[in-house]
Amino acid sequence: PAPMFPWSKWKKRMGASASSSKRPVFDEREDVNFDHFQILRAIGKGSFGKVCIVQKRDTEKMYAMKYMNKQQCIERDEVRNVFRELEILQEIEHVFLVNLWYSFQDEEDMFMVVDLLLGGDLRYHLQQNVQFTEETVKLYICEMALALDYLRSQHIIHRDVKPDNILLDEQGHAHLTDFNIATIIRDGERATALAGTKPYMAPEIFHSFLSGGTGYSFEVDWWSLGIMAYELLRGWRPYDIHSNNPVESLVQLFSTVSVQYSSAWSKEMVALLRKLLTVNPEHRFSCLAHIQASAQLSGVVWSDVSEKRVEPAFVPNKGRLHCDPTFELEEMILESRPLHKKKKRLAKNKSRDNSKDSSQSENDYLQECLEAIQQDFVIFNREK
Fold first, then answer.
1. Which fold has domain 122-321?
2. Which among 3, 83, 143, 239 is most buried, taking Cβ atoms within 10 Å?
3. What is any one GO biological process for this UniProt entry (predicted)?
4. Is 160 a catalytic site residue?
5. Catalytic residue among 35, 106, 121, 160
6. 3-state secondary structure of 191
7. Does domain 5-118+323-379 have CATH number 3.30.200.20?
């Protein structure tokens, strides 16, 4: 495995011991912005955009900051997704989600500042060959059931539940992230778009796409939860599906292939997975009440789960930062617009803009889009 980043050294490096008397005080009326944060280190790349650890200068609280280059978002036609994700995140907050705290923009980037979870994502731990026990996976199912139940109450289908999008905190509790392709459906509505990551997508999504049937609803997230739970226990997924599989063959697959369960698993776990991986969404476990009423989870004290009083059996190693250490190097060596040089760069751009003759820009369309983003972007501060 790749060498880990030494967490204790890093804490020293970032000046965690700086005395609070040196904290800057920001004007209450001023909108939160880039200057309010100290950039500490790069930790990852999302579906688009990058993620780094930041510290808010006045409170010294630590967060993860995702930043997305506006021009790249325009070129990849992803602005709508970013706006939808922000719109959703600004309205929700839950103990088992990665919650948004602030959003703001400058000329180059859009920023989202969210909960910092240092335990790594479940994909990372699978790749490190962590052997997840039934007890651990059962707790993840319960924690995600509470998160999905909350999302349902807010009319949200996540559509991308998978190990990559479950982050652990330092105690080992699970948090769902990445609302990039989530959708809001009002009472009685159904979703129809082919959206998600193929190996985790429910059969009815493919069915609806092919036959234009009645669409799909919240049940799809519970199927994904079942696929993920199976993968965590076994190390591979129950169906051999890849992103390049044609939709037609997948519809066929679900009607012909039956899932093989390990003989080493308890009867209760197999029964629970069967209920989550039921092809017909009407018979699938797909709400908190189903899960809570199941014999397989009869011993669960749900109030303890929701208050994080159930201790996870798998606790990520506290002395390490659970991400690929090459991100930090990439940010320093390969990044053409590194964050730590942003201030200088923006000042330079301003003087260049002022010196340009004001004739039509060579790229009117891009300019128009950038102006639209500047105008429509919603600045958010959860503390206000």
1. Transferase(Phosphotransferase); domain 1 (1.10.510)
2. 143
3. regulation of signal transduction
4. yes
5. 160
6. strand
7. yes
